[in-house]
Design brief:
Elements: H1 2-8, H2 13-23, H3 25-30, H4 36-50, H5 61-77, H6 82-95, H7 100-127, H8 133-143, H9 157-167, H10 171-180, H11 187-200, H12 214-230, H13 236-259, H14 264-281, E1 289-293, E2 310-313, H15 325-331, H16 333-339, E3 351-355, H17 359-368, E4 371-378, E5 390-396
Parallel strand pairs: 1-2, 1-3
Antiparallel strand pairs: 3-5, 4-5
Length: about 400
């Protein structure tokens, strides 16, 4: 991050860029998670650190090639990264007119060809058939817009909710940094705007899709702080006071979101892991069979339960023609549970995990089949729809 800032802006902005980035709740909350967007963001920062900018007079072909390599890796991790790197690459080629053919020959072509060949070979081996994942990704998310099955948002959502949530209190500071920079240094801001606009055409939107834009935004925030302090435009105590007011809400948000909000689904997995350890020590691990009656993707499952335990959960494959399993369950939970045995899903699980909002609907079924409440875990102060304020763990009387 520091090296990226030193390469893009004059000396002095790098330290503040790093300080802003480390205090941003999005970085604290998201970058530690096993998201492909987190890995994409890492390679984006490394690529920007090696990228050639127009104000750099000397063209280092080796450095340019390294920039393209890391940019290509970011695109292989998530093809949507191309929305950032295609405009930057086009601008680079236009600005280096005297060396354009050399860059195309020694940097762009070999990196692009090698990346695509590697991607096709690895993916085809894993899938067991010839597959071009980048095309499949484009077809699924943009041409057919099948991601909409996971939720839809209006076209302006990234502007009205996504970007403000991504930066929080640092948003006005980043805007000041963009305003203070000269036209050449607005390049990353313009490209970031293009990325947000391109993503806005897709129905399914998430905050994490904007994660690679966080480092450039922090870059402009750091530059704003540096410029204001170095030019004495405001008294230093005013600037430092404003920085505290911007940083404290970010840190408080990261503590709450990372340790309190929606914590029930991880707490129950830690509880099950401890129970699985006890059963494993007594040679009874095979008795543990857990059924999750929750919206799909609610719990981290085996990333927190590192044992060979039977876990059954409601599925929601996007390409399914009829209604998904979780839709069928929540449409009529008791009928789904009554028909469960007819679908070959026997015996009954030893434990059932659900949100508290579901409990009144299936309490009679739980009582009839001998399940008792084993533990309750706080989940959220803001329950929403099928996601309740707490997670409840039920166990059969035999396993309680």
């Amino acid at each position: 991050m520091v090296a990226m800032a030193e390469r893009y802006f004059p000396p002095g902005a790098a330290g503040w860029t790093l300080a802003v980035y480390l205090s941003t709740w999005t970085n604290i909350y998201c970058m530690c998670r096993t998201l492909s967007n987190s890995l994409e963001t890492v390679f984006t920062v490394v690529a920007l650190r090696h990228w050639h900018w127009p104000w750099t007079t000397r063209i280092d072909i080796a450095a340019v090639r390294r920039g393209f390599i890391y940019a290509a890796i970011a695109c292989l991790v998530r093809p949507t990264a191309a929305m950032l790197w295609l405009p930057l690459s086009a601008y680079l080629l236009v600005s280096c007119r005297t060396r354009v053919w050399r860059i195309l020959l020694y940097c762009v072509t070999p990196v692009a060809v090698l990346s695509l060949i590697t991607s096709v070979l690895l993916d085809s081996v894993c899938y067991g058939r010839l597959v071009f994942v980048q095309w499949s990704f484009l077809q699924f998310n943009f041409l057919n817009d099948l991601g909409a099955v996971y939720g839809e948002h209006p076209w302006h959502w990234y502007f009205t909710a996504g970007v403000p949530a991504l930066l929080g209190t640092w948003l006005p500071v980043a805007a000041i940094g963009i305003h203070m920079s000269d036209w050449r240094h607005k390049q990353l801001a313009v490209v970031s705007l293009v990325v947000v606009l391109a993503n806005s055409f897709v129905s399914h939107k998430e905050f994490r899709f904007l994660l690679p834009l966080l480092p450039p935004a922090c870059l402009y925030s750091g530059y704003a702080v540096h410029r204001i302090l170095s030019t004495n435009q405001l008294p230093k105590h005013v600037v430092y006071g404003a920085l505290v007011l911007a940083a404290v809400p970010q840190i408080l948000a990261s503590v709450y979101l990372g340790g309190v909000h929606q914590s029930g689904t991880t707490s129950v997995m830690r509880h099950l892991d401890k129970h699985a350890l006890q059963l494993s020590d007594s040679g009874r691990l095979s008795e543990l069979k857990v059924l999750f009656l929750m919206p799909c993707h609610s719990t981290p499952l085996y990333s927190h339960l590192h044992r060979n335990v039977s876990l059954e959960f409601l599925t929601c494959p996007p390409l399914q023609a009829s209604e998904t399993e979780d839709e069928a369950f929540f449409r009529d939970p008791n009928s789904w549970l009554a028909n469960r045995a007819d679908r070959g899903r026997i015996p009954l699980p030893s434990h059932i995990v659900l949100f508290d909002v579901l409990q009144p609907q299936i309490q009679i079924w739980l009582d009839e089949h001998g399940y008792i409440r084993n533990a309750t875990f706080f989940h959220s102060h803001f329950p929403d729809g099928r996601v309740g304020s707490s997670v409840i763990l039920y166990s059969s009387r035999i396993n309680s």
